[in-house]
Design a protein that fits this description.
The chain has helices at 31-43, 46-53, 66-78, 94-101, 110-117, 123-137, 209-217; strands spanning 3-4, 12-15, 18-21, 151-155, 158-159, 168-169, 179-181, 184-188, 193-197. With 218 residues, the protein is an alpha+beta fold. The chain folds into two domains: 31-117, no CATH class; 141-217, no CATH class. The strands form three sheets. Strands 1-2-3 form a three-stranded antiparallel beta sheet, with no helix packed on it. Strands 4-8-9 form a three-stranded antiparallel beta sheet, with helices on one face. A three-stranded antiparallel beta sheet has the order 5-7-6, with no helix packed on it.
Length: 218
Amino acid sequence: MNTAYCDNLADVLCVNQVRIDFTDKPITAWGGMGVLMGKFLEKIQFRDWVERHVPIIETSPNAGGVYEKVLGQLLTVLGGGYRFAHSMMWNHGVEALTRVFGVDWLPLAPSTLTRFWNKIDSQALVEQLGNASRLLAKTFINWEGIREDNLNLDASVLTRYGMQQGAHRGYNPKKPGRPSHHPILAFLGSGYVVNVWNRSGDCHAGQGAVDFFQQTVL
């Protein structure tokens, strides 16, 4: 390969007559999703909803903010993450993402999120957050316009590592013997998840299904 260097070696490299430039501007591989989600969250006033309804109050001056942590969790899930450790994917390009979403920082350490969500330590707080989430969904889902749909109930298995409340040994086809949670979900045929209960890993698939269904259809 023939390589020719241009005059300004710090900024430009010419390789086989292809000009390669370097920039000091923040860039990220998640820019496309970031711009779309940024506009969407702004439209539904997601930040305002988080600050009014997430039942966690932080008093420490070093806490960083409730919205930033909820946003970091949301982006991790949307990016394909399924463990708290996957929040570290934002290490690359985080400066660009903070500008897109109008925040000063995003949580990159898994312990930041685990400590945060551990503050929801009662069933009452779980239900409070769930009810507020359903109200948020009504702002961008035209429930009244859905004349007919299928309501599906299903159970899932989430393998857990370490000591987590409710994580017990039970049915786990992928990781037999590992502690897990056994959530039950309700979702429409159109794809919307309308309710979810987390359950301990040692419960059976149909446990609490009747009460769960009655809460869902109310």
